[in-house]
Records
---
Amino acid sequence: MKIRPLKKEDYTDCVHLLNQSFDEKYISLEQLEKEILKNTLFYGAFEKSELIGCVGLLQKSEESYKIVRLAVHPNYRHKGYGEKLIAHAENTAILNGGTKMSLAFLVPNESLKNWYLNLGYEMEKTKKYKNTEKSICFAKKKLPKTPPYGGLNKRVPCCSQCGFPEKVCICKIHPKLASPNKFVIIMHPEEVGRTTNTGRLIKNAFPNNTEIFYWHRTTINYNLKKALKDNDYHKILVFPPDKEEYDHKAISRDMIKEISTDKNIMFIILDGTWKEARKILKKSSYLKDIQMLDLDIDFKTEYYLRRNKDLGHICTVEVAIELLKLVGESENAHELHKYFQSFLLRYDQGRRM
Ligand SMILES: [Zn+2]
């Protein structure tokens, strides 16, 4: 099963799915398109290429979000798809700075109510629904600061935050570091919840000067937009400008050293696989004018959790370690490196339990 944003060609299937799940006249194509235009992000759950579930996420204010139009095809119910769609919507909200989630559903429906209670929702109030016997129940939930990661090992209890087995959890072993420079991590949606993700290690170690934003294909997160406008920092996008079209924006390691002596730097790092990072760069016009640094790595990565081990391909936290060295923060680089090594060790231990 794969969850991804709905594309225009999926809209008709989505309307069909919603009407099959509720009743025939639940929603029209026009209505769905209107909601998407009005800023509801819709995600679909796909089994092979068939749309079997969907969820809408509506931003109500800077920090509060609402789940709307959650549906799972009748043939695919009670298999965990609904939980996964809810988790996807919640994680998206968290990574966009959301702290609160709300939703509403028709009652009486005890099993649905219990289902939401199990997912951590609190029932707020019920209101009579139009001219029917039914009422709407409003529920809410306080979101955690970082998205929870899927369990690394199904045989033992795993930490609900990092996904590692509780005995080797990485949540509390991080160094507490500070830097005058800043990291802005733009995370590809596929990266969310991957236990192998290392971008989160930077945030854990530098909580006050790291911001993680979740990338979206067609919109830019409000807080990311704000962060990119911050002129207190010299902005550098870390990415090899290996194509001619990016050449004019290339900046060298030596130039970075020079800049860092009189201005703090905001390092913008794209967090995802090589392919995902390229996609982010290509599809995000707001990154077009930012100078680019090619770290030009000549050593082999220590990261063995994923396949891409080409020379020069290092993982996200290794990028940050290199950048810290570059701006003369060798002690910070050393501490972050030690944390990364503990992460790898604990990953290994966690898998074998
Ligand atoms: Zn943990």
Note: The chain has two domains: 2-142, 166-352.
---
Amino acid sequence: MGVPPVRAASTPDARCGGVQLDPSASRVGARVGHPCHGPVVLRAGRPCHAVGCARQACYVFHVLAMWLGVMSLSTTGCSGPTAGAGLVSAGQWHTVGTSVLGEPIRAYVIAPGGRTDALIMGGCHGDEPKSVYVVQQLIAEISEGRAEPPPQGCVLLPVVNPDGYTIRRRRNAHGVDINRNFPTANWAPGRPRSRMFGGEAPQSEPETRAVMEVVQRFRPRRIVSVHSIDRQRQCNNYDGPAEDWAALLAAHNGYPVTGSIGYATPGSFGTWSGVEQGIPTVTLELPSHHSPQRCWYDNREALLAFLTGASPDTQQQCR
Ligand SMILES: [Zn+2]
């Protein structure tokens, strides 16, 4: 008797990044889209919950896998070699830090010749899951061969703040806004109970230090930090020498280019990396009133163009 197929545990679900299970996967060795952890390979063996996810879609996935008699789930590429059975993959997953609650902070790294020219990250604010979804889709697009890997390399970091993301809270488990905790000249703590509390000291938080280490270790030449914003204020907000890069994104996503988000952001990542480190940095504010899928649809070409590093002039001439 044949093994019944794994069925989708849920429709695309923003809580888990919107990744559907692959209904064609049916047995040990099959690669399936895990709702929380991206591509996984089903293996026979002991139960494995090392990924430690408490979300319901993840739980349902594990129950389905066990029902099929497949007890172990190997998250493809989270350590060691990148490619699992049959997976097209251009890069490797690196653990680049650990959250307050001990969750790994992971980045997908493509480094041809040791180069990693672009960094794109999401999930700095845990209540902005669309930012995570878009970076996860970008990783899937490249790792599964639907888009060319960028020839000059990249680092893709989907969830800066995994503790906040798990419970859809802006701040980390210490109640600190990571995007106000970078060691800038204008850092200020703010009010401890506010949504934008900058912490007891600059870079006091492990998530902040993980991002700083990524920048210092991989030395990206341009950065997009993906967020989302309400009230139709979506924009390509640049810090440092990044106006041309913001314009490149705008040529594809249609959002306004702006050098100011309209309010003070002491201790922000953009100020640290763009203004003070001189690395062109764009804070891509997605429209929070759009679905994750719409955000990805509107930004796929923008982010792929940013990754390939085609000069904005060239891009505009081609349009
Ligand atoms: Zn944000």
Note: Confidence is low (pLDDT under 50) at residues 1-28, 42-56, 69-86, 314-319.
